[in-house]
DNA sequence: GTGAAAGTTGAAGTCAACTTCATGTCAAGT
DNA sequence: ACTTGACATGAAGTTGACTTCAACTTTCAC
């Protein structure tokens, strides 16, 4: 770490766990920002770490980067965000997670009955019906799982 | 539908909800198969519908096509799969769904405490820690959600 | 037997979220 | 001053799961 309180790219990769390429990618996408040295190197404010923590958590619960950007855009422009700011952003997730859990439970329960009846019917089985349970296309998107991708590929 | 009991591609798209391109893609990948007419068009057996139902359900709970293929490969080669065959394949999912639900609950509970403490700390918050909660990289993959993609794009 | 609808193919495109690469510059300890 | 490791850039590559396209060919109801 520098004597002043700015962080280098390396500092941030080490402390956030994000790859340098991801940080640059996020910067291009407007999710984070950095000042530059005279020589053109990035220098990050400490607050970028919390921002990155938010991004990681958001990605973990399934938000796309677009959604994350939208959320981050609601943070106050002038000042460093407060705990209350972050709490407000986070609050919506609880509902989202609840929805996801509900969807999964419905899926599991549907599955149990499928095993019971041995059906897996196209039209009647909640597990496999495209416009059922997991459907609700358009409004009130329902979320379903994907594997967690390995964070650091070598 | 044809007088004989084979289904055309159109029949299968309509009855399964999968796009024709997806059916061809699945066939290339060895997940489904079809016989051909003299003219080279695909004719599907009725059992492909159940297979597709399985594929959809599997995808819904987050299995990759590779995993689906592996599962389908354990079906008996000679005969049409029975209910018991499908039930066996499906059984493993319940555990998987339970794991997913547990992961989400942990995430939500971690989130609740984050909101409580306002932290979102890089090092201590379960929500944002890369190697925590959602971690367990390598063995015993933990699953987290992704948005359900719209089934029929126009 | 004919016209429209449905089907065929391989190759290339898409999308998200990054990573990798090639090539060149910066920063800083000795 | 020098060297070494960190950092810079734009372009292209990756992965999974499909979709789209262009250019034909088959089927089948009438």
What does this 3D model show about the protein?
Two copies of one chain form a homodimer. Chain A has 154 residues and is mostly helical. Chain A has two domains: 3-92, Multidrug-efflux Transporter Regulator, Chain: A, Domain 2 (Orthogonal Bundle); 112-153, no CATH class. Chain A is 49% helix and 6% strand. Chain A contains five helices and three strands, in the order H-H-E-E-H-H-H-E. Chain A has helices at residues 9-16, 20-28, 47-60, 65-73, 83-117; strands at residues 35-36, 42-43, 143-147. Chains A and B meet through helix 3, helix 5 and strand 3 of A and helix 3, helix 5 and strand 3 of B. The structure holds a DNA duplex (30 and 30 nucleotides).
How is this fold's topology laid out?
Two copies of one chain form a homodimer.
Chain A: H1 9-16, H2 20-28, E1 35-36, E2 42-43, H3 47-60, H4 65-73, H5 83-117, E3 143-147
Antiparallel strand pairs in A: 1-2
The first copy, chain A, binds a DNA duplex (30 and 30 nucleotides) through helix 2.
């Amino acid at each position: 770490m520098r004597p002043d309180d700015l962080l280098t790219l390396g500092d941030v990769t080490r402390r956030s766990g994000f790859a340098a390429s991801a940080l640059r990618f996020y910067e291009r996408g407007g999710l984070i920002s950095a000042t530059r040295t005279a020589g053109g190197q990035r220098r990050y404010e400490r607050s970028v770490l919390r921002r990155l923590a938010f991004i990681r958590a958001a990605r973990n619960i399934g938000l796309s980067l677009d959604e994350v950007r939208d959320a981050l855009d609601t943070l106050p422009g002038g000042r460093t965000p407060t705990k209350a700011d972050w709490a407000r952003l986070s609050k919506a997730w609880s509902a989202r997670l609840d929805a996801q859990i509900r969807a999964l439970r419905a899926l599991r329960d549907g599955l149990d009955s499928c095993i019971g009846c041995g059906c897996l019917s196209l039209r009647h089985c909640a597990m496999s019906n495209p416009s059922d349970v997991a459907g609700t296309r358009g409004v009130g998107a329902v979320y379903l799982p994907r594997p967690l991708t390995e964070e650091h590929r070598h």
